[in-house]
Amino acid sequence: MPLKRSEFSAFLKNFLNLLYPDLCCSCKTILMQGEQHICLHCRSGLPFTGFETDRENSFTALFWGRVRIETGTALLYYVKKGVVQQLIHSFKYRSDIRLGRFLGGLLGESIVSSELYREIEIIVPVPLHPEKERKRGFNQSKVIAECISRAMDVPCLGRVLERSGHAESQTRKARFARWENVASSFSLRQVEAVKDRNILLVDDVVTTGATLEACANKLMEAGGVRLWMAALAISS
Ligand SMILES: [Zn+2]
Q1: What CATH number has the domain spanning 46-235?
Q2: 122 CA from centroid of ligand 1 (Å)
Q3: Per-residue pLDDT tens digits for 164-215
């Protein structure tokens, strides 16, 4: 009996998988059926923060006295040379967008599971400088924001904020100059789209919070805005 189309594609997939097995992006063992990107063992060892159910947590503490947010969360703790750094590096610098979507999906699920994020009406990603986005081919914060958007069934508005200024290397600048640079490098392009709305602002990794703070201040300029924040990881 000839194979049906679906059977054939499953067969082909299994056959290719024999030749080029999918590996765990952390420990590099061959992934089993049902495992995606990361094996169950490594996944269970990921440093999840659990912030999504705490209104006050070390993510929101970063913004005390700086910008008023309803609450905020990061999915994972970011430790230098750890698994999370590896994952995010593969996503951002080796363009593993499928991995980014997988992580974004986990963040989306965690937010949907929480009571604290029910009032959100729109999602806004932190923009990349257009030149940088062209070079990389994508904006990692937008990829994450779109995953949350799908999970929450809330629209993602990718062109509300724009990153301007020159894309000069940030690392060569002194800390204060860098902060000043971040604070003045965003502009609000669609005031009416965000005015009086409940907004979830999304970034990839939060370190000092300066980028999110600068974007938050821009969104607030529209008036009547309430803000939530989310990121894949927070440096600890
Ligand atoms: Zn593994």
Answers
A1: 3.40.50.2020
A2: 35
A3: 865 555 555 566 666 566 767 899 999 999 999 999 999 999 999 999 999 9
- Taking the centre of ligand 1 as the mean of its atom positions, its distance from the CA of residue 31, in whole angstroms, is 8
**Rounded Cα gap, residues 194 and 159, in angstroms:** 11
What's the pTM? 0.86
Q: Which residues surround ligand 1, an ion (CB under 5 A)?
A: 24, 26-27, 39, 42
The residue ranges of every structural domain in the chain are: 1-45, 46-235
Q: Judge contact between 225 and 194, C-beta under 8 A.
A: yes
pLDDT in tens, 112-143: 999 999 999 999 999 999 999 999 999 999 99
117 C-alpha to ligand 1 centroid (Å): 31
